[in-house]
Write a structure and sequence with these properties.
CATH class of the largest domain: Alpha Beta
Number of domains: 2
CATH topology of the largest domain: Membrane-bound Lytic Murein Transglycosylase D, Chain A
Order of helices and strands: EEHEHHE
Number of strands: 4
Distance between the termini: 66 Å
Strand content: 15-25%
Number of helices: 3
Strand order of the largest sheet: 1-2
Oligomer: single chain
CATH architecture of the largest domain: Roll
CATH superfamily of the largest domain: LysM domain
Length: about 110
């Protein structure tokens, strides 16, 4: 709103104060926003990053990294799983010896 003072030729702007017309609607809208934020945070925590669980196995006669990976890999690329097995067990190549202990990722 603008009021013009003729004597001093100044323009004075008056602030309009906002009046909340429907208080109940505002409270319900605010509650819905907070509820949506809470649900998204708790869903992210529930389905977010999960730590791997490990199991130690003994290598049997005829076992290969490929056969072990086929047995324990439930999802994803088997080559990636074999790479992770090598890294986890400090293997330089895919050679494993019967009777040795291997740590495998259980998914």
């Amino acid at each position: 709103m603008c009021i013009k003072n003729i004597s001093s030729q100044e323009v004075i702007y008056m602030k309009r104060r906002y009046v909340l017309k429907n208080r109940n609607r505002f409270i319900v809208s605010l509650a819905i926003v907070f509820l949506a934020i809470f649900v998204s945070i708790s869903t992210n925590n529930a389905y977010g990053y999960k730590e791997h669980t490990y199991q130690t196995i003994t290598v049997m006669n005829g076992d290969t990294l490929w056969s072990i990976a086929r047995k324990f890999n439930k999802k994803g690329d088997i080559r990636h799983y074999i790479y992770n097995l090598q890294k986890l067990n400090n293997l330089k190549d895919s050679s494993i010896i019967e009777g040795s202990q291997l740590k495998v990722i259980v998914e």
